[in-house]
Design goal:
Chain lengths: 190, 166
């Protein structure tokens, strides 16, 4: 369960990082949301991008709190199944990213995936990362709803914290390292 | 699963991710190197030994390569013209890709030939080349200063073959 908790925590950290990046520069995500045919970034798309960024930030932070502290935070709001719902939401968010990336990958999109501020072309690594983190989050929601890092004692907590940080840093850079840099921005010709 | 086993599993996961990232970056470096190799302009071939029919003649020629935009070329042209006038047994010629205000001098005719200039692809201007009768560059040196030019011209007296009948 520690491994699953670490991977889920890494997914949450990555989600927080993504949310911060998208809030800082919503135009990149807005171009992704507008699609390749769009010529500019309309205000509506920017608002949608900011909304997605806020959701990413909130879900990531809530999952991280839930993993670290247990059902202290989510239970009063979401009931006893609160942590499960949070993990499932995180899994579904990543599933949505996977579906979007898969659709763009099949179209032969060579633009920035818009995942984080680190530009990376839409490719197998970005897809595998989103799919893997989705699977881990959904699995954690199913099999280990009550597991928290605190249950494993101080050593487990340290392992989850350090492991999640290292894993999140690696996963953050992985698409750019494997898939490479984009040849153009989303919605703009190469 | 104990904490130790979990740490081991996570360490392996991180190692695998690192290996994948490194392999991806190496692939990108190779692609970048290939792209850069294609972008690099045609490498300069060695100037000495290059044969150009347009420079072939009955004897060797001392070729002064000039450029209209080069400040020292005017001085080099004047000095070489004076030297050529003093040594009519050696054939001198100047080459430029565009006409400029160099004074007309019968002992140092200026050939304006953009194509030949490009074909020669001399890395420096002004430069002094010695071209043999077959049009092959026997020597090529940049002219860095008046002293260097004087030295090169005095060396020419020892090496250059005189014009037939002169």
């Amino acid at each position: 369960m520690i491994v699953l908790a670490t991977v889920t925590a890494a997914a949450a950290l990555l989600l927080i990082r993504t949310g911060i990046d998208h809030l800082h520069d919503p135009a990149t995500l807005a171009r992704v949301l507008a699609g390749p045919a769009a010529r500019g970034v309309a205000g509506r798309r920017l608002r949608a991008a900011r909304a997605v960024a806020v959701v990413e930030l909130l879900v990531g932070a809530a999952v991280l709190c839930s993993l670290a502290l247990g059902p202290v935070l989510p239970t009063p709001l979401l009931g006893t199944a609160g942590p499960q719902w949070l993990l499932a939401t995180q899994g579904l968010l990543y599933l949505g990213f996977t579906a979007s990336l898969w659709s763009r990958y099949r179209r032969g999109d060579q633009t920035d995936c818009g995942c984080t501020a680190l530009p990376a072309v839409v490719g197998p690594a970005a897809l595998a990362r989103a799919a893997g983190l989705s699977l881990a989050s959904l699995l954690a929601a199913l099999v280990a709803p009550a597991t928290t890092a605190l249950d494993s004692g101080p050593a487990g907590l340290v392992l989850v914290a350090v492991g999640a940080g290292v894993l999140a840093a690696l996963l953050h850079a992985l698409p750019a390292a494997i898939d490479g840099l984009p040849t153009a921005q989303p919605g703009r010709a190469a | 699963m104990s904490v130790l086993v979990a740490a081991l599993v996570l360490a392996w996961v991180c190692l695998i991710l690192l290996v994948l990232a490194m392999a991806g970056m190496l692939r990108q470096i190779r692609e970048l190197q290939a792209d850069v190799a294609q972008l690099t302009p045609r490498g300069r071939r060695p100037l000495v030994g290059r044969q150009l029919d347009a420079l072939a003649g009955d004897t060797s020629t001392v070729l002064l390569v000039l450029s209209p935009g080069c400040g020292f070329c005017e001085v080099a042209h004047r000095m070489v013209a004076e030297f050529a006038a003093a040594h009519p047994q050696i054939r001198f010629e100047a080459l430029s890709f565009r006409a400029a205000d160099w004074p007309a001098d019968p002992s140092l005719p200026v050939r304006v030939d953009e194509r030949l200039f490009a074909e020669l692809d001399v890395p420096w201007v002004p430069a002094l080349l010695v071209v043999d009768g077959s049009g092959t560059a026997a020597s090529a040196r940049p002219i860095g200063s008046e002293e260097a030019l004087r030295e090169q011209l005095s060396e020419l007296l020892d090496t250059a073959k005189p014009l037939p009948g002169v």
